[in-house]
Structures are given as C-alpha cells and as structure tokens.
Design goal:
By secondary structure, the chain is mainly beta. It has one helix at 2-16; strands at residues 35-46, 49-52, 58-64, 68-75, 87-96, 99-107, 116-124, 127-136, 141-151. Strand 8 (127-136) and strand 9 (141-151) form a beta hairpin. The protein starts with a helix and ends with a strand.
C-alpha cells in the first residue's frame, strides 16, 4: 500500500513540475498558425466592388510567434526604388478557435495604430487564409479583406 501511495505521489509531483503548454493557453496560437507566411493574393471589397490589392512587384511576409505578429513588404524591382512603398507593422493578437484578432500596435501610418481587426482564419495544407473587416473610423476606411498566404519553409 505504501508503495502505491509513493508512486502516486511521485507521479503527481512530476506532472505538477511540467511547464504549461503554450499551445493550450487561451488566446494563443496553436502550432499550425505559428511561422512565416508569404502573401500570395489579396482582395478588398467595399460596397459591391471587389478589387485585387495584391501587387506582384512587391513581396510581403507575415511572421506569427506565440504572442505577436509582424508584417513587412518591399519592392522586388532591381535596382530597388528608394521611393517605392515599404510597409511594416505589428502587434499582439489573440486566437480563439478560428477567430484571429490583431491588435495593431505599430504601423508605418500612425493613424492605423491602436486599432483591432478581427479575422476568420483557415489553414489548408501550406495555405493560410484570413478574411475580415478592416475598419479605421478616423480615416473613413471600412472594407472586407481576404488575404491568402503560403507557408515559408
């Protein structure tokens, strides 16, 4: 009997010493979302009009770690045009089921900072799709965006 109690106590102590899994923390990404993603298509819909916002002359990546996201884009033309648009931004996020919510803390255009954007995300094979509304009241922006990314290996 004492041996059984000792084994149970040892097992309980061992289990209690294990660090919590970040994949199971509420609001944190599960493993498939983490990583580096390259934008492969993007659209914006405002009212009844949908346009492609994907620029094949630029490369954009999004990096997602357990607590933050960041995105960067730059001109692909060589020699690079120093006046060409460069975009960067990032912040924190939460993920609950398929609802991915970005809290934009940093952006090249400060008027966008401090806003929160909610998306539905799906991952199929090596493709991440996010769809949601970007709304920035002080700029009069409200449109639905759909972005598709492929995983960078």
């Amino acid at each position: 009997m004492q041996l059984k109690l000792a084994v149970i106590a040892l097992a309980t102590t061992f289990a209690a010493c294990q660090p919590p899994s970040k994949d199971k923390e509420p609001g944190r990404a599960t493993l498939p979302l983490l990583g580096t993603w390259e934008l492969i298509s993007a659209t914006s819909t405002e009212r009844d009009s949908t346009v492609s916002t994907f620029n094949p002359k630029q490369k954009m990546i999004k990096i997602i770690n357990p607590t933050h996201f960041a995105f960067f884009s730059h001109d692909l033309r060589v020699p690079r045009d120093s006046t060409a648009p460069f975009t960067s931004g990032g912040g924190t996020y939460t993920l609950k089921d398929s609802v991915y919510t970005e809290h934009l803390d940093y952006f090249i255009q400060p008027e966008w900072e401090g806003n929160t954007f909610e998306f539905i995300v799906t991952i199929k094979n090596d493709t991440l799709t996010q769809k949601g509304i970007e709304k920035v009241e002080k700029l009069g922006i409200e449109h639905v965006i759909v972005e598709r990314y492929k995983r960078v290996k």
